[in-house]
Amino acid sequence: MYLLEKQRTAAIKEGIRQIDLAYPVFVDAVMDGFIQGNLYVDDAMHPRIYFLETACGIYYVAGKREEELSHCSAFIVDVYERQKRQNGRFTVFSANQLTDVMMKKYLGSHLNEMERHAYIFSEVHSYVPASHSGYRVERTNEQVIKASKAFTPSYYEAYWGRAARFLSKGIGVAILDGEDVVSECVSIFSSEDRVEIDIWKEEACRGKGLAQLAGQHMIRSCLENKRTPHWDCDVQHLTSIKLAEKLGFQRTKTYRLFYSS
């Protein structure tokens, strides 16, 4: 596998789309330079296999044919062994069933797996968030990060490298009750034109619609910044699925995720 120069990202994106039209936002986040990572291919001029790694230990594998994917299996196993030695995270997002077969064949005895749904925001009309008396909405800033119970500085360090990078390139909104953050919605990953949403609400505020409120304001912020909102969740996470549908997201695919324990 060859480390690809970042100058060819436009052509590479089109190549990946031919395999996986709904590929993860973090792939674009790396290629657009929003977060650190590398993209490896089997052929620098005419790639058929794509292996992308982020600095936080999340990976993506896509290929056109089973036999070609098998040729890169040793490379992927080496990455897994390296992460295992370093006690690092190893989470692989699979593009399709071909990748599923390859991952199970070569690393199935070492990894857990789960199914996840991918969604994209599909509303095309003017989007106006609801209001909620007694609470105020703020864009994520340094004060919100300090007060947050879920999206702390360590969260941004893990996914963005540092909080300052998120504040410069990411999008986030918080719902506050006085000075307390009771719900938040942030871009776990973002690129030039896409955002993957991560959402949280205070358990004590269950049933008040605050997560939906945060999601609505997040969607508006994404659209104002000309970025399409995306949403991913575990197929067993019924609450997340219901909220995604309420907010206007439509499912694009169901895929497998492989991860070390």
Automatic annotation (TrEMBL):
- Which residue ranges does the record assign to the N-acetyltransferase domain? 122-261
Q: Name one Pfam family in it.
A: GNAT_acetyltran
SUPFAM superfamilies registered for this protein in UniProt: Acyl-CoA N-acyltransferases (Nat)
Can you provide one Gene Ontology molecular function annotated for this UniProt record?
A: acyltransferase activity, transferring groups other than amino-acyl groups
The family database entries (Gene3D superfamilies) matched by this protein are listed as: 3.40.630.30
**Superkingdom of the organism of origin:** Bacteria
Check the record and name the InterPro entries matching this protein.
Acyl_CoA_acyltransferase, GNAT_acetyltra_YdfB-like, GNAT_dom
PANTHER family xrefs: FR47-LIKE DOMAIN-CONTAINING PROTEIN-RELATED, PTHR31143
Please report the name of this protein according to its UniProt entry.
Answer: GNAT family acetyltransferase
